[in-house]
Design a protein that fits this description.
Length: 368
């Protein structure tokens, strides 16, 4: 059922009023909620991808992920108009956003699941830009890189996703993966980085389920036309499947648990070295953090390749000399190393402690 701005519908005694809030996408709506059993005024608003805790939805995805040109700036102007509209509403209104921390739909989403409009008016920078031009510049700058799966997500949203009444079951495969995982398929090892670094199956990509950005990281590397497999601890299987299905990774025919690691003949490992060891060895350093992180502070003379672009730009990475990768905490650099190892790279190390350790050890950085 298509909904228009200002239309209302009831679910029991709860009234929903449609507020058209374009910007993140042209068709985006928010839903204002009134519990008519006890009140004749709204109690809150489901704001979807318009207003988050501490942020607003990015307007550049249609342009960057789907390729619809010249939509980012008009979308940013629509978000500015939305903010002006909401600035006139009552402070007491609850705000229930569609996403929290870890989502790539904004640049600084808060971790709390809900907020109030009054709190956002006071602390959300979107409400403190002095004019439309400043707001547009602020909103379009510093957005995180767009994961590849966003284009797939837009397609699914347009045609409608297949209804899944239950989580599809993946087969627990108890044999060593060799010959089971088809070439080109994504084989994710979801264990913590230290466990993966010490011993892993060659060809697997380390994306820890403990990371708040698990689905975003998977979305950078998944091939939707091929099956996806994963290795995990027993108690994490359902959580992993839920996360994969949430971004449309439905073709998961099987998973492995850690018992198969005993059959690994050619063990994969990842080496760690301190910034001082890397500096003394005169290694090429690759910074795999995002554009805004790199712009804020980076090591001089490094090669900057955001983690999600590592496959597309692998030809820039030499195979005939040692290379050190770093990020903020060591997770993204390890993901990137495991992806490159799958492609045949061998002379790779992870810089212990990331750029924070580099600074602690007294080495120079360039800052914005």
């Amino acid at each position: 059922t298509e909904l228009q701005d200002g239309e209302q519908f009831m679910i029991g005694k709860v009234r929903f009023e449609v507020i058209h809030t374009p910007g993140h996408t042209p068709e985006h709506i928010s839903l204002q909620v009134t519990d008519t059993a006890v009140a004749d005024a709204p109690m809150g608003i489901f704001t979807g991808d318009f207003l988050f805790a501490g942020d607003v939805g990015r307007p550049d995805l249609l342009e960057n992920a789907v390729g619809i040109l010249q939509t980012a700036e008009p979308g940013a102007k629509q978000q500015y108009a939305n903010i002006q509209k909401f600035a006139q509403m009552d402070d007491y209104l609850h705000i229930w956003p569609g996403h929290g921390a870890g989502s790539a739909c904004g640049k600084s989403l808060g971790a709390v699941p809900s907020t109030t409009l009054g709190y956002e008016k006071r602390f959300n920078p979107a409400f403190h830009q002095p004019d439309e031009n400043t707001f547009v510049e602020w909103l379009l700058s510093g957005q995180p890189e767009t994961p590849h799966y966003f284009a797939r997500m837009k397609d699914v949203n347009q045609r409608g996703a297949e209804l899944l009444r239950d989580i599809p079951q993946a087969q627990h495969i108890q044999e060593y993966p060799e010959g089971i995982v088809p070439p080109g398929s994504l084989f994710i090892d979801t264990r913590p980085p230290n466990d993966f670094a010490q011993r892993h199956i060659p060809g697997s990509v380390n994306i820890p389920i403990s990371s708040t950005n698990f689905t975003t990281y998977v979305g950078w590397f998944v091939e939707y036309d091929l099956p996806t497999f994963f290795l995990s601890y027993h108690n994490e299987v359902i959580e992993i499947l839920k996360n994969l299905f949430s971004i449309g990774v439905d073709n998961v025919p099987g998973y492995f648990t850690t018992e198969v690691l005993k059959d690994v003949r050619n063990i994969g490992i990842i080496k760690f070295q301190s910034p001082r060891e890397i500096e003394q060895a005169d290694m090429l350093i690759i910074d795999v953090r995002g554009e805004d992180e790199y712009a804020s502070q980076h090591i001089p003379d490094v090669l900057h390749i955001p983690m999600g672009h590592i496959l597309q730009r692998r030809d820039e990475i030499p195979q005939d000399r040692p290379v050190a990768l770093h990020c903020g905490s060591g997770i993204r650099s390890q993901i990137a190393i495991s992806v490159l190892q799958r492609e045949g790279y061998t002379n790779l190390v992870n810089m212990s402690g990331g750029i924070a350790r580099w600074v602690e050890d007294g080495f120079d950085v360039e800052e914005a």
